[in-house]
Design goal:
By secondary structure, this protein is an alpha+beta fold. The protein has a domain at 2-76. α3 packs across α4 (35-42) and α5 (47-58) packs parallel to α6 (71-77).
């Protein structure tokens, strides 16, 4: 009787005040006492409870997630998830330690072409993964930051340079030496050359090198800790060159890289010059920045506010509480003194470090109305969406509403995650930075009725430019990958040629495990582009078994994806429960990228011949580095379940 009485209480009281007090084991036992209670705890009414537990106990970035259901299953597996990376290996971005031949033998033209297991702290696994231009950054369940790669791959430095140098490379995943100063991190976002963090206190931190953490403070005190009620920061966004924050009351602010000399002066005042081990230590300090406030959205509703933002290179997309979408151009406003000069071509104020004059011109444009939010009706009005040719045979329901936005460099996507189990309400629309009111959404048929580029069954789709293996689809020279060449190849390909390799013993070449053994056949090359979305296969996955309505019995369930430059990453959990047949163990998943332990960072490598980051002391980290290459746009990989970002 007591159980029935419990369910008579208001839903909000149960999910907000009573059930959160119980540990998961107690909730399970409670559900076992009564059929109705079991259905309640396992059902849609309790999704918010398990979502909050994931956020509070594991720092899961729920504000960036498109997930509407399945929170209990994800919560139960968050201590056992795996991280994977693939793509271009330059600048240490894949975290492969120098001398790790087991992994380097897998590289094809400097790239890992299939997802490779990444070792991160076992006691605090990752809950989010963000890719920068030449780097990766992971947020762990303990609220710590783990980074690897290079923040500024266009800068040349010595292998053992101080961490304060933006060109310093971390060749292995490394716990940030500034985690204690940063506090418990709630959100991690990566731009091209910087990382933006928000901690549980609402503080905003920006890092443009691994050894400097700047606590960003608005010089006018309009947002952040200590600001007026409603101006607390609820989300941060690291774009190509700029940073952005969203406050609780729906106001957005942006800023660009501070002047390097000003940062150096502040870092020295914080004690950077007195560090005993600058190659492994850093400093954290507050820094006042002139931020630019974006204008209010034009709305007939007084209570309509911005709930999500996504930043590209020179634009920002906003989603409102009424499911409307707006576009704001933040590119440099032409200097009246140079009326014939293209944007930013001659005015030094319009450089990536936006000068005060450039910012003032943008603010003036906001005030006089020549710049501001423009309604993207073709992307959010359901009647206009239903009228698109791509949906003429199967239009989405009239109840469909856009729920998430994503942007990166010159591309953006908007999508809906339905609250119900009806997949027809899940749509994905894409566009470019040159959007105008006449622009029609790009619709890829294979992505509709799915929750973006990873499917409702947790499978990852990839397409677009090959980009050194960043699609994760393998290579024609590899066996058992989506891009594997047919084997044996047709007779026409068997004739010897100058591109053929010499014959090998029957067992193949031990240096290249997994490669096709018949080396008298000309080596097939990777395609320049994959036109249609294809499924990415993860290590340890056997043949996919489908049961019921697309439910998989085994393999990996991908819950977060990220991509930038020519490298990609994903977080996944095992679908099979512990002990079930088909559940792959880590030992079965092959080579893995190793975590660099803190003691390694302080002591360096063995024998004194290895620099602090694993690079050779006799060489240079980043020799022959290439400039940044845009490989993400159009590949179809979102940036890690992040509705506020990508």
């Amino acid at each position: 009787m007591a159980d029935s009485t419990l369910l008579k209480l208001p839903l909000d009281l149960l999910t907000d005040n009573i059930l959160p007090l119980l540990p998961p084991s107690a909730l399970t036992r409670l559900g076992a006492t009564n059929r109705d209670l079991h259905a309640f705890i396992e059902g849609a009414e309790c999704e918010i409870l398990w979502k909050r537990k994931a956020v509070d106990e594991f720092h899961f970035p729920a504000n960036a997630s498109g997930r509407r259901a399945g929170w209990k299953s994800l919560y139960q597996r968050l201590t056992r998830q795996s991280a994977f990376v693939w793509g271009e290996n330059g600048n240490g971005r894949l975290g492969i330690a120098q001398g790790d031949n087991s992994l380097r033998s897998q590289l094809i033209q400097r790239g890992l072409t299939t997802p490779t297991l990444l070792e991160l702290p076992s006691d605090a696994p990752p809950v989010s993964l963000s890719a920068g231009g030449w780097s990766f950054h992971a947020l762990t369940t303990s609220g710590n930051l783990v980074s690897w790669g290079t923040l500024d791959g266009g800068t040349f430095v010595m292998g053992n340079a101080p961490l304060s140098d933006s060109g310093r490379t971390l060749f292995q995943p490394t716990l940030s030496p500034l985690n204690e100063q940063l506090g418990e991190i709630a959100q991690v976002e990566a731009g091209r050359k910087h990382v933006l963090l928000r901690n549980v206190l609402g503080e905003v931190w920006e890092m443009r090198s691994f050894g400097r953490a700047v606590r960003v403070e608005d010089e006018e005190g309009r947002w952040g800790v200590g600001a007026a009620k409603g101006r607390e920061v609820v989300a941060v966004e690291a774009a190509w060159e700029h940073s952005a924050i969203l406050t609780a009351d729906g106001n957005a602010f942006i800023w660009w890289e501070p002047g390097p000399m000003a940062l150096t002066t502040a870092a020295e005042a914080a004690g950077e010059a007195n560090l005993s081990h600058p190659a492994t230590q850093g400093v954290a300090f507050p820094f006042g920045i002139e931020t630019v406030q974006l204008p209010a959205i034009p709305s007939p509703e007084s209570n309509e506010r911005i709930t999500l933002i996504a930043s590209g290179d020179t634009f920002i997309i906003a989603l409102t509480s009424s499911s409307r979408l707006f576009f704001c151009d933040i590119s440099p406003v032409p200097n009246p003194a140079q009326p014939f000069a293209p944007h930013g071509s001659e005015d030094a104020e319009d450089s990536p470090v936006r000068g005060r004059a450039s910012r003032s011109r943008l603010e003036a444009a906001f005030l006089n109305g020549t710049r501001g939010w423009r309604l993207m009706s073709r992307f959010c009005d359901i009647e206009q969406i239903r009228s698109l040719d791509a949906f003429k045979d199967s239009p989405p329901p009239e109840s469909t509403r856009i729920t998430h936005v994503s942007a990166h460099y010159q591309s953006f996507s908007v999508y809906s995650v339905p609250a119900s189990a009806d997949p027809s309400a899940s749509i994905v629309l894409m566009g470019k930075s040159d959007w105008s009111e006449e622009s029609e959404p790009v619709v890829i048929p294979e992505l509709q009725a799915r929750a973006r580029s990873h499917t409702p069954t947790g499978q990852l789709l990839a397409w677009g430019a090959y980009s050194s293996g960043a699609l994760g689809l393998g290579h024609p020279q590899l066996l058992n990958t989506p891009l594997s060449a047919p084997w044996p190849p047709p007779a026409a390909a068997r004739s010897p040629s100058s591109t053929a390799l010499p014959p090998l013993p029957p067992q193949g070449d031990f240096r290249f495990p997994g490669f096709a053994p018949n080396r008298e056949i000309a080596r097939p090359s990777a395609p320049d582009k994959v036109e249609s979305p294809m499924l990415v296969r993860f290590p340890g996955e056997g043949a996919t078994i489908l049961v019921g309505e697309g439910e998989r019995k085994e393999g990996k369930f991908v819950f977060a994806i990220t991509a930038s430059g020519w490298h990609s990453g994903a977080l996944a959990v095992e679908i099979a429960e512990d002990g079930e047949d088909g559940a792959a163990t880590k030992e079965e998943e092959g080579p893995r990228i190793r975590l660099r332990q803190p003691e390694q960072a302080s002591q360096g490598g063995e024998g004194g011949e290895v620099a602090d980051d694993g690079g050779p002391t006799t060489g240079f980290a980043g020799m022959m580095r290439r400039g940044f290459r845009v490989g993400f746009a159009g590949r179809g990989l979102g940036r890690g379940m992040r509705g506020v970002g990508r």
